[in-house]
Amino acid sequence: MLLPVTAFFAIGTGIELYGLKWTSESLSIINTVSLIMLTFLIGIVVSRSYGNECFERIQRSLKSREAPAEEVLNDAVMSLSSMLLITPGVVTDIIGFLIMIPVTRNLFKGMALNLTMKRIQSGQAYFFFKD
Question: Domain residue spans in the chain?
Fold first, then answer.
C-alpha cells in the first residue's frame, strides 16, 4: 500500500512542478505567483462557505448505511474544490475550478456517490478517519 501512495504523490508532484514551470514560462514568474495567490484566496473563500460540517454529515450518512443526500454530496465536492484551490499547482487548480462549475460538478458528485456506495456496501462505516 505504501508504494502506490508514494508513487502517486511523486508523479503528482512532478506533474504539478512541470505545470508551474510551463505556466511561469508562458506568463512570467510574477504573474504565476500572483495566480497561485489568487487561487489560494478563492479556495479560502470557498472553504469558509463549505466548512467541515459537510464531512460530519457524510460520516453520519455512512454510519446510518444510507446514500448521502444531494446537498451533502454538493458540499463534499465543493470542500474538495476548496482544498484543491488552496494547494499550489496548475493541475489542482484546474480540477478545483472544474468542480466549481455546476455542469461539471455533477460528474464529480456522481464519482463521490459511487465511492460512498462502494464503502457502504463493503461495510466501512467511516469515510476518512475513525472518531
Answer: 37-122
pLDDT at 35 over 80: yes
DSSP state of 126: -
**Would the pTM of this model clear 0.85, i.e. be above it?**
no
Task: Classify burial at 81, counting beta carbons within 10 Å of its beta carbon; exposed 0-12, middle 13-18, buried 19 or more.
Answer: buried
81, 101 Cβ separation under 8 angstroms: no
Sign for the CA dihedral angle at 101, 80, 43, 72 comes to positive
pLDDT, tens only, 93-114 = 999 999 989 889 889 888 888 8
Grid cell at residue 81 = 474544490
